Prior knowledge:
seven-stranded parallel beta sheet; 11 strands
Amino acid sequence: MAPMTRSRADNPEHTATPLIAEYYEQRASAGLIISEGTHVNPMAIGSADIPDIYTQNQIEGWKLVTDAVHQRDGKIFAQLWHEGRISHPDLLQGKLPLAPSAINPEFKAFSKKGFVDTVTPKEMSLEEIRSTIHDFGKAASNAFEAGFDGVELHAANGYLFHQFFAKCSNIRTDEYGGSIEKRARFLFDVLDELSTLVDLKKVGVRLSPSMDKTFGITVDSETIPTFEYIVNKMNDYGLAYLHLSGFTLAEEADPMERILETAKHYRKIFKGPLIINKGFTKETANEAIDSGTADMVSFGELYIANPDLVERFEGDLPMNAGDRDTYYGTGPKGYTDYPFAN
Ligand SMILES: Cc1cc2nc3c(=O)[nH]c(=O)nc-3n(C[C@H](O)[C@H](O)[C@H](O)COP(=O)(O)O)c2cc1C
């Protein structure tokens, strides 16, 4: 099950609730659930009502979720998230969002008032970069304390890591900008930090190398060499997996074809398990695995409406259709009330 933000932590401390535990428990037959993005510190926030992972009460909230999934013999990783410039002062107690450089993504952030225009963020100081690296380490430790089986770094989809990687969002001239190596450095500093605290065999990384015209990211002449460098260097860390996201808001004829091409390219470079994602069905996913393009496929929207997706695949049963109006923030409606086939 692919990571999916559902914005149901509508409480002052943004803790996971019994309703959120019920949602994940319903989906526990997925071989591996990757949780919705969970923020690593208060400045990481860029969306309303996300169950976060930097306070003790939040750790306790997530224990409800991991216990519920484990009781049904499921496995669940926490997706660690910093949204960087895809945020708004309304979500940050009036502060400017943090980013590698002061460049407005000209996008939208999801606040309590609905979607609001992003602003020009504050360029992170070296001290702010260091403390953010530290907070990723603390959040990973918190995730294991909360009973997660592993963590996934959300380095995809135009958020903070991706903002460091891309030239359109990073014009720094210090050790975190300029060359490919320097733009990639933030990710490896975070992995180095995690290596001192948790077992890297339980750490995955999500990347979206082919993302273009989405979340303020545009492809440029160094995009491919940048991701080739990143994926190659990830081999030194003995990670759980690389998860390639094909998520896009751009008008694309066939995003699944595009992620298959992307996967074939990076498959040759990455030595560990590869998960791919975007628009797959049971048949196309089996083809991707049988042809050796990927080791695993993750499913997003199909899982919103079909808690028993595995059983439906097994029995070739019809799928429920998802209701996009209830993807974010509407309590149990469109969240825990989709019918099971049996
Ligand atoms: C409601 C919704 C929320 C999402 N939230 C996240 C998220 O928190 N983290 C992430 O990496 N991707 C997120 N995604 C992207 C999905 O993980 C996945 O890449 C996307 O849905 C495409 O896969 P699919 O075609 O199987 O749905 C989200 C997608 C949807 C539909």
